[in-house]
Amino acid sequence: MVDKDRVKGAAKDAAGTVQKEVGKLTGNDSMVAKGNANKAEGKLDKAAGHVKEAIRGEK
């Protein structure tokens, strides 16, 4: 069973990528920074999900 943190992290990572690219296209540096922050937060959530699964003995 996939941990909910992995799903949440993947969604944040994808949303951050979109936000970053829109910021680049519009020249909005603040949006690019927020997109990068969301991507980083998503990657941390995914990693937390992997750790939880490893502790439970799931693959």
Automatic annotation (TrEMBL):
Transmembrane segments: none annotated. Residues 1-21 are annotated as: Disordered. Belongs to the UPF0337 (CsbD) family. InterPro entries: CsbD, YjbJ_sf. This is CsbD family protein. It comes from Azospirillum oleiclasticum. Residues 1-11 have a biased composition (Basic and acidic residues). Residues 5-56 form the CsbD-like domain. It comes from the Bacteria. Pfam families: CsbD (PF05532).
